[in-house]
Amino acid sequence: MIAAARLQAECPPGGICVSRSVRDHVHGRLGLEFEELGPLNLKNIARPVEAFLIRHHGPGIISKSVEQSLIRGGSEPLPLPDKPSIAVLAFTNMSGDLDQEYFSDGISDDIITELSRSRALFVIARNSSFTYKGQAVATKQVARELGVRYIVEGSVRRDAKQVRVNAQLIDAETGSHIWAERYDRSDAEVFAVQDEITTAVVTAIEPAISDAELRRILRKRPENLGAWEAYQRGLWHMAKYDRTEHGRAKEFFHQAIELDATLGTAYSALAHVCLCESLLFFTRPPREAARLAEEWARKAVDINPDDSDALAMLAMATQLLDLRRALELASMALAISMNSSWANASKGAILIDNGNPAEGRDHLLKALRLSPRDPLNANVLNHVARSYYWEADYESAVNVGTRLVTRYPNHPTAYFWLAAGLGQLGRSGEAHEALQKAIDVAPRSFEMSVQTPHPWRRPEDHAHMLDGLRKAGWQG
Which residue in 384, 406, 389, 374 sits closest to 461, CA to CA? Predict the structure, then answer.
């Protein structure tokens, strides 16, 4: 507190100066830029203090309470970011050997790094979250001081042969445990074990936060949603795979953009809605839908040219107009992030339509592995079933189709490949039942799919699909 006041005294008139720890605390949260002033020698402070001058993006961007919190070094709570905020505390070394401290710190550090790659999360920097190391501090206090909703904490016990890591995710607002897991591994390759545990923890944490956030968002009134919350609410409606629900999704995506015109994911989502209007519900002609989707996706790319997901959505829109260009865009998206589920899904779907079902399927399966609980995975599974069908591997097409209709029974085209695959296998009773489902779930989608070949799809592939449907009992 004293150091913060003396630091502020050295600040240019009218400005706000903060230390490095406070800069790390709020960086990226309030839309601020920081000018590094270098180390300052403050009266009665033994060591120089690294100082940063806050640059405002616009008038009134910092409220009085937040300004005082910054000056005081965090004595006042900061507002929570619009998107999920999380702090990973240093894992406790339970080995009784201080030489093992690097291993427990390394796991915590790696988890922070990996979570920070997600654009959906606000992750507190290591320099701030590690200041609680070795202290017995309540999670609510930590969350208040760091301005986050979620806390990850854990412990590591390591001996000559075994590593045991306990990790848990806590909702600091309620004090409830959202997720907890224990990992036991052989200590054969220390760095390999560290990487394996980090991947396992991060893979579990993100879906757990998504589930908790969705439950919280659904409890809020629509008019009280923030931009990111409105976007998430839109995704929830979109995942219903219903024409009316997609209309609601579109309203929420527009609401998100009105609240934050720089939220690129909302533009990408609107592009996705346009494509679904054509490919699933047939309420727009394909080329019209593609042009609209391309416009929305380009806005997302303009906001962040290095957003692999935005480029992937642009590739999916372009697929309806120019298959070769779409493949180039999907490859560009993967070059930015090989671990983008959207980039892998888009390239997979495009490769299948380009006559490469096996290679496309590899990307689709990777997309499912990267985001196994994505509510929009119905389309990915649909493409996987289609890839097997194009290869005449009808057993696999039926297996995936069965999984698809079990998880997403209302998807407008979920029963297509199941019915066609069963028809090709001569399982007429099951095939006819699946065919009837395909017609009953979405009559217009079925009628348009069989009557109007997609312009980007090869004619022989369309004929192959119709052959299976006829063997299932379709009279067209």
Answer: 389
